[in-house]
Amino acid sequence: FIKFLEEFPIIHGKKKLAEYKCDTNEAICLKLVRFPEDVDDDGTTFHPEYSHQIFGDDEVAFGYKGLQIQLFYTAGNLSTLFKVKYSSKVTETFDCVEPDDVEGKIREIVPAGFTCNTDDFISLLEKEANFKPFGTLLHTYTVHSEEAGELTYQIHKADITCSGFQEYHERLQTFLMWFIETASFIDADDDRWDFFLVFEKYNKDGETLYATVGYMTVYNYYVYPDKTRPRVSQMLVLPPFQGEGHGAQLLEAVHRFYCSLPKVQDITAEDPSENYVKLRDYVLVKLCQGLPSFAVDKLHLGFSADMIKEAQDKLKINKKHARRVYEILRLRATDMSDEEKAREYRLEVKKRLFGPYRKNQRELTKMRKCLRPEELVSHMGQMDTQTQHEELEKSYQVVVEDYRRIIERLATQA
């Protein structure tokens, strides 16, 4: 009991200190502000998916109760309001305990020029009418909204030479930290970068204004002797606009732009996420389905050299991506209730999926020549044939499930 009494203040203190931990994904409040009333409207707030790059793997800030980190942006120019609010701070209650420097951490990623005064921020909204999209207009499209009717969007291509773009891009790329898990800022001074921006046109007091929707960065690599290979680096549609088809519109517009350039070899992506791969599959199938080599009567003959060549020549699609397009279109054209046709399709896809396992077998053959028997047994155990078949079947089912979703999406867009 005496020991408990001695330790009670420590236990009690730790419990009290735990109350000063805040989930930074909840504490960070983001907004794209069009009207003054948006500032106090909780319905316009959205939160990060990630904050670990700023606040560590636990995504926790210590030292505050009721912490709210406000990062509000004007919808077009992304002029920024940055404020830190809280109901109490740990140093007001406990001696010798320091809170995290939340403001300092945010300042590391938010470029200079923000305001900390709400009234000053609201006054910046009056300048939004002067904001115009950067660069060259590539594509215009509309999306139907039940609330607002037909909304018009524009996709522009910009580069670092556009007046005011570099400062705008510094503000825009701060969103990457909150929504892409392994995001990093790029050196926008390099003239090999291309930027593709999506904007919504909207009316305010009889004037046409533009709101930032999302963007993509693409780096142009040199390919010997006289070609380039554009590689998608980052792509983000901001949360208020997600689920409306803007990602597909953006990727298709970017693809069509590079297809118009004779010096482009093919278009790739850097470390693509699963969601990006699914989006790319959808867009490439949409582009390829009208090509003669991908006609329904050609699909059952197998993946052909004509498909590879036509996809490359007309749409700058490499062999690997063309193969996935072929598999999706063949699935769409196959009656999977017909056992024989379903079996042919399954074997065709598994033949591609088996590639990595075949590579393992080749490596095993090489190992036989240089490994001791006990080491060889260890490696052979990792390549058990039964396990390979099970993993292959799992991979096949996952791939087909993804393909079916793409086919369903194509059907709804037809």
From TrEMBL:
Catalytic activities: L-lysyl-[protein] + acetyl-CoA = N(6)-acetyl-L-lysyl-[protein] + CoA + H(+)
Active-site residue list: E270 (proton donor/acceptor)
Residues covered by the Histone acetyl transferase HAT1 N-terminal domain: 20-181
Keyword Ribonucleoprotein applies: no
Superkingdom, natural source: Eukaryota
Pfam families: HAT1_C (PF21183), Hat1_N (PF10394)
GO annotation, biological process: subtelomeric heterochromatin formation
Primary localization class, coarse: mitochondrion
GO cellular component, one term: nuclear matrix
Keyword tags: Acetylation, Acyltransferase, Mitochondrion, Nucleus, Phosphoprotein, Transferase
UniProt site positions, description: Interaction with histone H4 N-terminus: W193
SUPFAM superfamilies: Acyl-CoA N-acyltransferases (Nat) (SSF55729)
A molecular function (GO) term: histone binding
EC number, as in UniProt: 2.3.1.48
Residues of the Histone acetyltransferase type B catalytic subunit C-terminal domain: 280-331
PANTHER family per record: HISTONE ACETYLTRANSFERASE TYPE B CATALYTIC SUBUNIT
Family: Belongs to the HAT1 family.
Subunit structure: Catalytic subunit of the type B histone acetyltransferase (HAT) complex, composed of RBBP7 and HAT1. Interacts with histones H4 and H2A. The interaction is dependent of the ability of RBBP7 to bind to the N-terminus of histones. Component of the histone H3.1 and H3.3 complexes.
Function statement: Histone acetyltransferase that plays a role in different biological processes including cell cycle progression, glucose metabolism, histone production or DNA damage repair. Coordinates histone production and acetylation via H4 promoter binding. Acetylates histone H4 at 'Lys-5' (H4K5ac) and 'Lys-12' (H4K12ac) and, to a lesser extent, histone H2A at 'Lys-5' (H2AK5ac). Drives H4 production by chromatin binding to support chromatin replication and acetylation. Since transcription of H4 genes is tightly coupled to S-phase, plays an important role in S-phase entry and progression.
Protein name: Histone acetyltransferase type B catalytic subunit
